[in-house]
Specification:
Elements: E1 6-15, E2 22-30, E3 38-44, H1 52-66, E4 72-77, H2 80-88, H3 96-106, E5 110-115, H4 122-134
Parallel strand pairs: 1-4, 4-5
Antiparallel strand pairs: 1-2, 2-3
Helix pairs in contact: 1-3
Length: 146
């Protein structure tokens, strides 16, 4: 595996109880080049059952889906739920559908998940901003202002 196959990603997710709208986001860059970034975010509407935990996990899945085949990635998350479930083998009692997607998406990659304090680095601050923006009312199903 060469250096272009290694990535770092910072993820965040959130849910607004008042509107029921969830949002996820990530900032990703190759480990070998700190200046190239890929930023993505998305909106999840109430009919799709967003929660904070689901949005945090969905952000990680979106990173894995965006990677080239057989990549190495270190995912940094402020979600104790995601990091502890992956690293400490917490018993999965909820969000089974998304955990199955995580397992499927990680099959062709070497994945490391590390917990970090909220907004502890600029990349995570940016993911937080994008996830919060994705939860704002006034966005259509594609995340565009309507």
């Amino acid at each position: 595996m060469n250096s272009t196959d290694r990535f770092q990603a910072w993820t965040d997710g959130g849910w607004r109880q008042k509107t029921g709208i969830g949002g996820w986001a990530y900032v990703m860059k190759p480990s070998s080049d700190g200046f190239v970034q890929d930023e993505k975010s998305g909106t999840v509407y109430p009919d799709d059952g967003p929660t904070n935990q689901r949005m945090e996990l969905l952000a990680v899945i979106k990173v894995l889906d965006a990677l080239p085949d057989r990549a190495e990635v270190t995912v940094y998350t402020d979600s104790q739920y995601v990091a502890s479930t992956v690293n400490e083998g917490w018993n999965i009692k909820a969000n089974i559908d998304l955990w199955q997607k995580f397992v499927d998406a990680s099959m062709n990659h070497e994945v490391s998940v590390q917990w970090i304090p909220r907004n502890s680095v600029p990349e995570h601050e940016r993911a937080d901003e994008l996830a919060k923006a994705a939860t704002k009312p006034g966005l259509d199903k594609d995340g565009e202002e309507g």
